[in-house]
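Can you make up a protein sequence with its backbone structure tokens?

===
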Amino acid sequence: MPNMSYCRFENTAKDMQDCIYAIEERNVYDFGSDELRGFKLFYELAQEIVDMEDDIERIIEYYESSDSE
């Protein structure tokens, strides 16, 4: 089931943290072909996120500056 827009990033961040934990714990050596495809996509998407660093920082600054008002 897709994430609802109001909790998309919250839910995805939790799932990403779980994936990062699996990598850190070296729990990544029993993949099937579907899981390997997902792992590769996870990596590609992480690279895209890094490439969007400036945009992401602007979004965070927007919300943090509006919180202080």
Remarks:
- The chain has three helices and no strands.
